[in-house]
Write a structure and sequence with these properties.
The complex is a heterodimer. Chain A has no helices and eleven strands. Chain A is an all-beta fold. Chain A starts with a strand and ends with a strand. By secondary structure, chain B is mainly β. In chain B, the strands form three sheets. In chain B, strands 2, 5, 6, 10, 11 and 12 form a six-stranded mixed beta sheet that branches. A four-stranded antiparallel beta sheet of chain B has the order 3-9-8-7, with no helix packed on it. Classes of the chains: A mainly beta, B mainly beta. The interface between A and B is medium-sized, with 18 and 17 residues.
Chain lengths: ~110, ~110
């Protein structure tokens, strides 16, 4: 199957700082990328959907000014958590697909804000 | 709106036995896909099986089979001959064309030796 990578796989940052997470589709062009957040012992919750070259569509309750998503190319999307706080600590998973075909998931990034 | 429901927070099964994980869904789209994923403690989402809404036969992939009952809107996952390595979280998900994938709450499966 297709491969989606995320970097970093884990990150620890101090409260008030910003963290950028990268999501790359390695062997296909992703017209759409998705960002999910998963708190411990909970399900994946969709944060936003981004199409290459256009602004991301955020789910209700997700602050777009706090979670900045950039999908600048067909193989790269970034999620920046701005002014991170301990409550932002979570497992962030990206997913990518080309057109309306199969959706592939990245391995996830574990963010801990101290 | 799409909705996925998994009513079993946790399940136990004896090694080598079969287990069924429940999933029901709700959608107004006539065309949709149903998925099951396994998430071990490492966090990665491992694709297990897919069922299309127009598929006539239940999907099977090795020890995994999907009991698709369209009229009841259920898509239960059956794992046969459970192995210790099957212990993980299992998520049911649904996607309609041009829509994103939505997940159920998940079921934690524990396989006992």
């Amino acid at each position: 199957g297709a491969v989606v990578s995320q970097h970093p796989s884990w990150v620890i940052c101090k409260s008030g700082t910003s963290v950028k997470i990268e999501c790359r589709s390695l062997d296909f062009q992703a017209t759409t990328m998705f960002w999910y957040r998963q708190f411990p012992k909970q399900s994946l919750m969709l944060m936003a959907t981004s199409n290459e070259g256009s602004k991301a569509t955020y789910e209700q309750g997700v602050e777009k000014d706090k979670f900045l998503i950039n999908h600048a190319s067909l193989t790269l999307s970034t999620l920046t958590v701005t002014s991170a706080h301990p409550e932002d600590s979570s497992f962030y998973i990206c997913s990518a697909r080309w057109e309306d075909y199969e959706q592939y998931f990245g391995p996830g990034t574990r963010l801990t804000v101290t | 709106a799409q909705k996925i429901t998994q009513t079993q927070p946790g399940m136990f099964v004896q090694e080598k036995e079969a287990v069924t994980l429940d999933c029901t869904y709700d959608t107004s789209d006539p065309s949709y896909g149903l998925f099951w994923y396994k998430q071990p403690s490492s966090g990665e989402m491992i694709f297990l099986i897919y069922q299309g809404s127009y598929d006539q036969q239940n999907a099977t992939e090795g020890r995994y089979s999907l009991n698709f009952q369209k009229a009841r809107k259920s898509a239960n996952l059956v794992i046969s001959a459970s192995q210790l390595g099957d212990s993980a979280m299992y998520f049911c998900a649904m996607r309609s064309p041009n829509n994103d994938m939505r997940f159920g709450a998940g079921t934690r499966l524990t396989v006992k030796p």
